[in-house]
């Protein structure tokens, strides 16, 4: 995979301290294209994935907090529950 190729991930975290929670939210939202509370969709290059994992390991405490980064298949159909609406993806979006 070329370094400039972006891959869709689901980033989720559970943080026990309010200060670290705010820092984790700020960190993940820098990469997020959508999300809710502590779960976000992120499109990452290999370099950005490394940066995000490094930043989160600096923020979080291994014995108290958790962080998951799960690779998703962007070709899958979006399913919503309840009152959700199917997201409309623009032709392009800015990450930076």
From TrEMBL:
Q: Carries keyword Nuclease?
A: yes
Q: Which GO terms describe its molecular function?
A: hydrolase activity; metal ion binding; RNA endonuclease activity
Residues binding Mg(2+), per UniProt: 14
Q: Which UniProt keywords apply?
A: Antiviral defense, Endonuclease, Hydrolase, Magnesium, Metal-binding, Nuclease
- Needed cofactors: Mg(2+)
Stated EC number for the protein is 3.1.-.-
Q: Which Pfam families match?
A: CRISPR_Cas2
Q: What class of enzyme is it?
A: hydrolase
What biological processes does GO assign it? defense response to virus; maintenance of CRISPR repeat elements
State if S-adenosyl-L-methionine is listed as a keyword.
no
Q: What does this protein do?
A: CRISPR (clustered regularly interspaced short palindromic repeat), is an adaptive immune system that provides protection against mobile genetic elements (viruses, transposable elements and conjugative plasmids). CRISPR clusters contain sequences complementary to antecedent mobile elements and target invading nucleic acids. CRISPR clusters are transcribed and processed into CRISPR RNA (crRNA). Functions as a ssRNA-specific endoribonuclease. Involved in the integration of spacer DNA into the CRISPR cassette.
The text of the family note is:
Belongs to the CRISPR-associated endoribonuclease Cas2 protein family.
Q: How does it assemble?
A: Homodimer, forms a heterotetramer with a Cas1 homodimer.
Q: What is this protein called?
A: CRISPR-associated endoribonuclease Cas2
